[in-house]
Amino acid sequence: MRKIFFAASILICLLMCGCSQNNMREYTENIFAMDTVMDLKIYSENDEALSEAKAEIRRIDTLFDRGNENSDIYKINKNKSADVSAETADVIRTALSISDRTGGAFDITVAPVMDLWGFYGNEFNVPSDDELQSTLEGVGYEKIRFDNTNISIPENTGIDLGGIGKGYASDRIANLLKNKGVKSAIISLGGNVHAICKRNDESEWTVGITDPHNKSQLIGKLKISDKAVITSGAYQRYFEQGGITYHHIIDPTTGKSADSGLASVTVIADSGMTADGLSTALFVMGLDKAIELWRGSSDFDAVFVDEGGMIYVTEGIADVFESDADYSICKRND
Ligand code: AMP
Ligand code: MG
After folding, report:
1. How close is the Cα of 249 to the center of ligand 1, in Å?
2. CA angle 232, 122, 128 (to 5 degrees)
3. Which atom of ligand 1 is least distant from the CA of 107?
4. What confidence tens digit (pLDDT) does each residue in 82-128 have?
5. CA distance between the termini of the chain
6. pLDDT-based confidence at 26, cuts 50/70/90?
7. Domain 3-47+184-330 classified CATH 3.10.520.10?
8. CA dihedral sign of residues 189, 193, 197, 201
9. Confidence category of residue 320, pLDDT binned at 50, 70, 90
10. Which of ligand 1's atoms lies nearest the C-alpha of 106?
11. Of 149, 106, 129, residue with least CA distance to 274
């Protein structure tokens, strides 16, 4: 009998202290949206900003949910050509630029493959090689065509923003809260953390990184402020069949769960969208190619855990990473 494992929630821990040195009050909220559990904590004079943040998450969920008939993504996937909001077009353009940057490791046209494996809808199934090959014909980010905000795709292609949507939502919430005058907040959209400014006592936020081999433990912590910290891991969503584990991060060249030797990748960046897209892509690329990309970039840092439990931390965040375990620091000029 098929045994199904589905990670109920992502356990990047937020180690937060509510101590206050000013007259701000702490407001927290826990909601289910974008297919995951979201935790919001803000320091403010009232809960107005928190209510607006919740409404914004619901709005973005509706815009991108490919199962919702009112969403832009549903319209593109169903009609193969649709006029969408400028916002959706921008997110798709950003996704395509991450595809270019990562040699196609990030590819939002994996939708038909996600469906074939049953990850969308949780009706898990291991496809035959023939099924996989014919479904892969529809995959390829270069197949997406733009005419301003009109987006079209071939008949056998579909779009899935699951690898970037939460990062986009976290950017929107961070901007919204700052525009409302919030000086301290932290949000976790299913483990996609965005720390807004510093903690209320002016110290750095502490964001824990889950041990991909033991979800109840951390492999380390980061002391950061004003950053997105986003993890992609094989442990976050998977099923098991015939003693084999299949997870939800797809290598677009094979249509199968990425098998690059990595167990998790955490990306730290100013932009949630960049961190989200890159964490998925770097997971697919594997350590060596991921480090090569990092060396040629200046907009992110990363923590990698490989399948053997080895931890690699890029130079830019080495000073703010703490761990009881041994880890290697990746240098820019090695
Ligand atoms: P994340 O948890 O951000 O790594 O995203 C994983 C989700 O992104 C999956 O559940 C799919 O919806 C989608 N996805 C899977 N593989 C890819 C890929 N190679 N490129 C872009 N999106 C992907
Ligand atoms: Mg992602």
Report:
1. 5
2. 90
3. 20
4. 999 999 999 999 999 999 999 999 999 999 999 999 998 888 999 99
5. 49
6. very high
7. yes
8. positive
9. very high
10. 20
11. 106
Is the pTM higher than 0.70? The answer reads yes
114 C-beta closer than 6 A to ligand 1: yes
When the pLDDT of each residue in the chain is averaged and rounded to a whole number, the result is: 92
DSSP class of 143:
G
Report how far residue 286's alpha carbon sits from residue 323's, in angstroms, rounded to the nearest whole number. Answer: 22
Hey, what's the torsion of the CAs at 301, 197, 34, 255, to 10 degrees? -10
Q: What is the pLDDT of residue 23?
A: 78
How many residues would you count in the chain?
Answer: 334
pLDDT band at 55 (very low <50, low <70, confident <90, very high): very high
Quick one: tokens of 102? 């990562």
Looking at ligand 1, which atom is closest to the CA of residue 232? 4
Is the Cβ–Cβ distance between 216 and 259 less than 8 Å?
no
H helices of the chain, in order, are 48-64, 72-79, 86-101, 111-117, 129-136, 165-179, 272-285, 287-295, 315-318
Half-sphere exposure of 45 (CA within 13 A, CB side): 2
CA angle 11, 226, 315 (to 5 degrees): 80
Task: Report residues near ion ligand 2: CB below 5 Å.
Answer: 163, 276, 279-280
CB of 61 shorter than 6 A to ligand 1: no
